[in-house]
């Protein structure tokens, strides 16, 4: 029988980078930079998704969400302003991976309804990431007593949840 050794507590710890967040406020700002980058990248990705969709319903839904995403970018700029810092993007590795996966789906499927199913699946991954991020940032804003930022983040969170519901309804149609 093989024995396993438990790692010591020291082995489980990561050494923080010198640029690591030192407090909740810095973690909040880092999260804002990530989602700001993500929303701006979505503005670039959504037209490609619409161009590759085959269903008229999906071709119509994506440009509508593009306009909403542009609004999210503007709203995030307001959030940055409300906490007294300049809007700055920081590459979001999670969203970069999700967007790359979406691009891969379009390249690996023929332009028929199941490509649309893949586009919807990739879009829902994006929405779920955004919902998690905006929910977390809203919680941070509440703790940090950034009332204006909180209102703006909650508004975007609500819109992201609505978009996810629309995507689910679209997926439940004859596309899948």
Automatic annotation (TrEMBL):
Gene3D superfamilies: 1.20.1260.10. SUPFAM superfamilies: Ferritin-like. It comes from the Bacteria. InterPro entries: DUF892_YciF-like, Ferritin-like, Ferritin-like_SF, YciF. This is YciE/YciF family protein. It comes from Sphingobacterium mizutaii NBRC 14946 = DSM 11724.
């Amino acid at each position: 029988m093989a024995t396993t050794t438990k790692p010591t507590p020291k082995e489980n710890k990561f050494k923080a980078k010198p640029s690591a967040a030192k407090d909740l406020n810095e973690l909040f700002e880092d999260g804002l930079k990530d989602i700001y980058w993500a929303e701006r990248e979505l503005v670039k990705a959504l037209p490609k998704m619409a161009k590759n969709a085959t269903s008229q319903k999906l071709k119509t839904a994506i440009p509508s969400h593009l306009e909403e995403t542009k609004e999210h970018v503007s709203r995030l700029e307001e959030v940055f302003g409300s906490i007294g810092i300049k809007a700055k993007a920081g590459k979001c590795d999670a969203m970069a991976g999700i967007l790359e996966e979406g691009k891969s789906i379009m390249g690996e499927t023929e332009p028929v309804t199941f490509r649309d199913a893949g586009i919807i699946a990739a879009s829902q991954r994006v929405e779920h990431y955004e919902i998690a991020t905006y929910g977390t940032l809203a919680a941070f804003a509440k703790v940090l007593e950034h009332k204006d930022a909180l209102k703006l983040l909650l508004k975007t969170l609500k819109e992201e949840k609505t978009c996810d519901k629309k995507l689910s309804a679209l997926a439940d149609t004859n596309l899948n």
